[in-house]
Amino acid sequence: MTEIQTVGIAGSGTMGMGIAIVAARAGFKTLVFDKRQDALDRAKSQTEGFLKKSAERGKIQPADVQAIMDRWEGTTSLDAMAECDIVIEAVFEDLAVKHELFTSLDAICPPHTIFASNTSTISITEIAGGSGRPDRFVGMHFCLPAQLMKLVEMSPGLGTSDDTFSHAWGFAEQLGQKPVKTLDTPGFILNYFLIPFNNDAIRLVEQGVAEPSDIDAAIKVGLGYPMGPLELLDLVGLDTQKLLCEAMHGLTQEPRAACPPLVRRMIAAKWLGKKAGKGFHVYGDSKMFGA
Fold it and tell me: What percent of the chain shows pLDDT beyond 90?
């Protein structure tokens, strides 16, 4: 297979932005696609802010900031993905949306380009079925926030070739990530536990058991988690949590995966989390986590 040199990221939201940082930081030319220029502008600004803070903390050298940003390029033209050796999709958890994207990419990208999905709930085989190249399709679920966490859940679909999976696995290691192999099952490893767990935390708020700050403090101090579940939900976005719940519950019928009513009320109030300035907590800025 062709050596991966140029990485495409489809979607510049929280996950896409984090994955793009990982790729550019690892030395890859990174093209970030989004239909909206304002979303790309925000992603670029937040990425640069994160890198500058990383330099201040000694995680990277000050000179690395510009070098990494020089490898980061945003585009509103999907045609730009034609030069990519791998394209990682990080858009809404909606099968039809993903199929539409990959159908377009299949007509644009050369045959050697590997397609990957960052989905956390939808079947890799189902997404690959609408990609035009199920043998060159793989699941690569990065752990949020991708720019800080090392985990990547690697999931082959039924049609994924051994060569494709091996190549994608090696690419994940080149990124400096820690890949683990999972079967193509709902939630893989991480979200099989995390979606019901986060919903339980939401229901504690609904029932008035404790305030969000106290729930987060209890989980961090008692279980040693670096981030509380409600802080994490604010980072993910309540609108995204709703989609994750609907996908997971639709596949498994697990009662704890069903979307809590409070999430729908918060979405209606536009309390979407950190990106909106308010969710379970109130925020004074929209900087990336870790910046």
Answer: 88
